[in-house]
Amino acid sequence: MNQLHPTRATARRSLTPALSALALLSVLPAAPLAAQTAAPAANNDEVVVLSPFTVSAESADRYHAGEAISAVRVRAPLLDTASSISVITRDMMDDLGPTRVFDVTRYVAGVQEGRGVQFQDRMIIRGFETQNGARTVDNFLQSADADNIVESVIDRIEVSKGPNAILSPAGAPGGSLNIITKSPTFKQQRSFLATVGLFDAQKYMLDLAGPLGDGGKFAYRLVHSAQDSDRYWDDSYVRNRTLAPMFAWRLSDKTLLTLKVIGAEQWLSREPLLIIHPDVTAATKDPYFAPGINPKTNNGIQDWSHVETHSADVFATLTSQLSEKLNLRVAANGRYYYEDSDQNFLSTPGLSNRYNPYTGELTQDSTWALQNTALPHNATTNRYVPTFSPFFNPGNIPNRGDRQDTRRRTFNFQTDLVYNTMLGNTSSQTVAGFGYSRQLAYGRGRTGTMPGIDLSQPDREFYPTYGATFSFFNRNSYANTQLYVNQRFGFFDNRLYLTGGLLRYSTKTVGANVLTGATPAVLDDDKNLWNLSALYKIRENVSLYASRSINASPVIANNQPLWRSGEQDEIGVKSEFLNRKLSVNLAYFEIAQTNVTVPNPAYQTDPTQPQTLVSDLSNKGYELEVMGSVTDNLSLIATWSHLKMRDALGRKVRAVADENATFLANYRIAEGSLKGLAINGGIVYNGRRAGDIPDGNFTQLNVVKQVSFYLKPQYTTTLGFSYRWNERYHTRLVIDNVLDEKHYISVAGGRVTGTGITAMPGRNLRLTTTINW
Known about the structure:
This is TonB-dependent receptor. It is a multi-pass membrane protein. This protein is mostly beta strands and 773 residues long. It has two domains: 8-351 and 391-772, Beta Barrel (Maltoporin, Chain A); 353-388, no CATH class. Helices cover 3% and strands 52% of the residues. The protein contains four helices and 40 strands. The two termini are 45 Å apart. 50% of the residues are buried.
């Protein structure tokens, strides 16, 4: 394990480790990426064929893209796709200046914030949190690593909602993020961007791209970015560095080879100590913190407490038109990821004996035990009786140090063939492919003893004494193969599309506890996954559709091999207006998933508890999404969703609101003395959300344990101004939390820190200047 110096200097290392990690990838097979079609060089008369495996670089509007590739890895108009796919354009990202991916995906219907705001790009899609493998990058599924995708390398984001048996067979049933990274371009472009602000700012990006030589055969791109910024909370910070060289070779007018290397490092400070007040119950409309907790400071969490990640990805993609009807994609990806963390965790007592056995309600400062109780007439009976027992002492809050390191080596290979033809008056598209993925990984850690935290002296500095032996050491691996075919027929001049897909998923997933030497848990099994859909265009710009899809993910939970399976039924209507620059979509869906695995909140404070809770969940709801332009100057997004997300016992699922709505608009002045000025504003509404998940299902008397508190409905606001001086200079001012509504509990996964609980930060101002040349 790397030795971590107990100061914030740890987070100031160079990019060297990530570049060293790239060298380690040389032991893996060559790696790939979803290539984007290159435009011909200005002095080249060849006509470059647009690959069906990539989307056009042009969008219908700043906020509306007409195509996506996330259905079956093949480009298709959204209007002709019988599923819900929302696209976040690069223009929208530029308007909002996101610190993390969720800052832009929050405007997509059905997307909510997941637990915690630090890492894993956590978010909730249609009620299901995406942490367990629902992020794909250039069509390759990534593990639930702690790092976030750095915005500087992103070209666009496609949010595919519902289980996807082909793009993400092991993803969450609520949906997947398919992040499309930037690519080399045969048109020269160079830009430098710098951002300063109150917090979550202080970064720069250099983006260089263009042709190599005069023959129109080669192109490059080089993206470099860095950020070193304080966060809103005292002694909290976010730091990252990214270096991404890319190369494209147009072997012919029909064949393109793209190579990308993305090296990244991130340092994220641990969130502050936060504990819910013991008087807060499910009936409390606006939950609040315990006495002595300052939502603006770390409250005794040490400033050396952080998560540090290093990753290196190599992507290689070859796309080729083999004939007029047949196209090929061959792609591979090698990823090396390692994580070193030195963190400060609470060790407060568990809550299992603090639930009222008769009602299932949590009593934070009382424990319950069976006692012999006197009754009238000298009778006695055994009853559960509460005893006052404060959950924590503000002058001596138990805590510990955790040093962990995680290593993952992953290799992915994909090959796809798409065959388009006409069978009489019927169009036919057949997409067939093969995928293979292999990962070797381990995670291990040590526990350190520390003095208790005294909230009256929150700035005391100390460092844990770590033991010589590991407190945990787990190894895991998987080898997955996927063989699929997806067939679509178009009838009546493509007014009616019928589509069916089948995927054979084979896995050998292994989890082993090195310390105990127990027999490894092994899932060596196969699954047949499928999807069916029908779409009818009642007009050229209006489609009705219905679909059914399933997926499944192999997982080892608490040393038990499981299939986590999801299925969805969806019906909807899609439409495009105003020259197809404005889309209006409405969908109804029903989702169910078995063996949902979520971190056990009790494990964060008591490592002897099961690390994972397993349950079955179901959800159904409606979504309305409007994206695009209503005039040449005004682009907007407006969404509304209504969910009914419940677990098998009818309880609301933590962090999931039933009612959600968003609105984002951008108005640009094209004429007059204010020409070049643009204004954008957004608001996000999330309804009442469960703040925690009970540590079990039933009390000693078989009464269902209840959610102990709920978050109040929340509004999140942003306002932006931008001015484009000319083609070279562009300045943006972004104001987050415009009304400065702060310090309330905005996100929570439990009653104590370490479960994702977060206080709303105050107003933030960020100024960005871009120079193009």
